[in-house]
Amino acid sequence: MGITVLIVDDQTMVRQSFHAVLDAQPDITVVGEAGNGADAVHAAVRDRPDVVLMDVRMPVMDGLEATGAILGHPDLADVRVLMLTTFDIDEYVYGALRAGASGFLLKDAPLDDLVNAVRVVAAGNALFAPAVTRRLVAEFAARLPVKPDRAHRLTAQELKVLRLVARGLSNTEIAAALVIVEQTAKTHVSRVFAKLGVRDRAQAIVAAYEMGLVVPGEN
Questions:
Q1: H/E run at residue 106
Q2: Domains (ranges, CATH) in the chain?
Q3: Which segments of the protein form a coiled coil according to its record (predicted)?
Q4: How far apart, in whole angstroms, are the C-alpha atoms of residue 43 and residue 30?
Q5: What is the CB neighbour count within 10 angstroms for residue 27?
Q6: Phi, psi of 6 (to 5 degrees)
Q7: Residue 198 Cα distances to 16, 71, 135, 166, 175, angstroms
Q8: Which 8-state DSSP code applies to residue 56?
Q9: Given the DSSP bridges, would you call strands 51-55 and 104-106 parallel, antiparallel or unpaired?
Q10: Are 69 and 90 in contact (CB under 8 A)?
Q11: Helices (H), 61-110
Q12: CA-to-CA distance for 116 and 103, rounded, in angstroms?
């Protein structure tokens, strides 16, 4: 079946538009739709999609609460959530990233970007344009107290790796920056994620800001 997708949005026309575009792809199948977060949780448990396209603001249960419920469900460990929003700076989206969402996409992005986003997230990668996501995280992390308590879990090298991840660098770029081979960089990144209990790069960026390893405005 390829990549399976659940579309969650309270606007019927938006769901239908996304459904038509995604179902037209040879490697993507839409297995369900939901008009609010509560229905999304039920549908995710029923259909076990690879990716959930989750609107942020909906009636009954918003996208943030639904994301937490889906990603925290013991039977949905492999499900990825991609947030959809009309705003590139949205406190709900920040909360969703903290909860483990794999990234976010603006609703007015080109439809080709939507298709690519689904493929990226389904492959287990975080979807974020570094400049936008770092601005999002910096905006809201700056309002929170620094919590450096998790830093002791990481070695000095792993702390360097986390800082580079938070700057939006890929494994290849991290390897070049630290003068190590790419496989070693990938291993370091995996260990950082495991030690911090984060799902992907999006959550790692949040953790880096909250631990005070990166500060708003830092390049």
A1: strand 104-106
A2: 3-127 (3.40.50.2300), 139-210 (1.10.10.10)
A3: none
A4: 12
A5: 12
A6: -110, 125
A7: 33, 12, 20, 13, 21
A8: S
A9: unpaired
A10: no
A11: 63-71, 91-99
A12: 13
Length of the chain counted residue by residue: 219
Closest-CA residue to 98 (of 15, 183, 188, 199): 199
Q: What is the pLDDT of residues 3-47, one digit of tens each?
A: 999 999 999 999 999 999 999 999 999 999 999 999 999 999 999
Q: What does residue 85 show for φ and ψ, rounded to 5 degrees?
A: -150, 160
Rounded to an integer, what is the distance from CA 78 to the centroid of its chain? 13
pLDDT tens digits for range 47-72 = 999 999 999 888 888 888 899 899 88
| Rounded Cα–Cα distance for residues 157 and 63 (Å) | 36
